[in-house]
Design a protein that fits this description.
Length: 218
């Protein structure tokens, strides 16, 4: 059985911005449905998301474009970290962490597995202050964050850094990500990978836990 669970952060551990869009609109005094950020929940209504999935732009470019649109609406520059902190608060953001992630991490660790994070924008988008208030991050053995490494998934060097931090062979690592290109990158590198479907968080986690021989979450 694999011995490590390697998780993306945004959308896998933390709820996506699409799921908390009402909080964003309320925080900026916007009417409901003002922002056309649909992502995987209605890709046919979000051309920019479809372009990103097709490889026409990066995930960062997608969110940078959305933050630019919001900046124009509210009349001041807002980066993604500003949007997250303004809608979720600068401090602890536990209520935006998926409840399934707590159970999944507990189950993985109970089975004897190591749990770590491989993220492209953890501190860049969420900020150190918010990170310090998320108790689940203390359960991680390592956090490899491209905010600091500057090496983004699906670059194979990103997976290599995560593997080096875990000090395990590739066959012992189950990697979970909500972006198909990152999942493919992990597969190409030689990891066992699970695509995280934000429409079915519990099922996605249970797929990964089954590979670890861990108990499913309810």
């Amino acid at each position: 059985m694999p011995k490590a669970l390697l998780l993306d952060f945004g959308s896998v551990i933390s709820k996506s911005l699409f799921e908390t869009l009402p909080d964003i609109e309320a925080a900026y005094g916007l009417e409901p449905d003002t922002l056309a950020w649909h992502g995987p929940f209605a890709p046919d209504k979000d051309e920019l998301w479809s372009d990103m999935q097709a490889g026409k732009l990066s995930e960062r470019e997608y969110y940078y474009t959305r933050s630019s649109e919001l900046s124009k609406l509210v009349g001041r520059e807002q980066k993604i970290i500003d949007i997250i902190q303004h809608s979720r608060g600068r401090g602890p953001s536990e209520r935006f962490v998926r409840p399934e992630s707590y159970a999944a991490v507990a189950s993985a660790k109970a089975s004897g597995a190591i749990v770590s994070i491989l993220s492209n924008e953890l501190e860049l988008f969420y900020g150190k202050e918010a990170m310090d208030g998320i108790s689940l991050l203390a359960e991680m053995q390592d956090i490899v964050d491209a905010t600091h490494t500057k090496i983004l998934k699906p670059d194979p060097r990103a997976y290599e850094m995560a593997q080096d931090a875990l000090a395990l062979p590739k066959s012992d690592i189950v990697f979970v990500d909500d972006q198909k290109k990152n999942v493919k990158g992990g597969q190409d590198y030689g990891l066992t990978c699970v695509f995280f479907d934000v429409l079915n968080p519990q099922d996605s986690y249970n797929q990964a836990l089954a590979l670890l021989g861990a108990e499913p979450i309810q």
